[in-house]
Design brief:
Elements: E1 2-5, H1 6-11, H2 13-21, E2 26-30, E3 33-38, H3 46-67, H4 74-83
Parallel strand pairs: 1-2
Antiparallel strand pairs: 2-3
Length: about 90
């Protein structure tokens, strides 16, 4: 993922659109902090994402059965992730 300043985005907008149309994501920064992201239209295929989530849940259940443990819930996983964040 590329990063450009707001000034660069303003002066090279057409070039950035060409890059995004080829599938690249661009982050725009102001004072070295991300403020916007340009992503390809239709980049997120919800059917694909939904299938990936279903596959992960199935794998998680399968692993839990092999170990004889109870599968973690989505809430437990989210809480564990949040605990690890500063």
């Amino acid at each position: 993922m590329a990063t450009v300043t707001a000034f660069q985005a303003k002066t090279r907008f057409g070039e950035l659109l060409d890059r995004v149309s080829r599938g690249e994501e661009i982050v725009i920064t102001r004072h070295e902090k991300p403020v916007a992201r340009i992503v390809p239209e239709g980049g997120a295929n919800l059917d694909h994402i939904g299938q990936a989530v279903a596959d992960l849940r199935a794998g998680r259940s399968l692993m839990a059965k092999r170990r004889g443990l109870k599968a973690l819930t989505d809430r437990e996983i989210k809480e564990a992730i949040e605990e690890g964040r500063p």
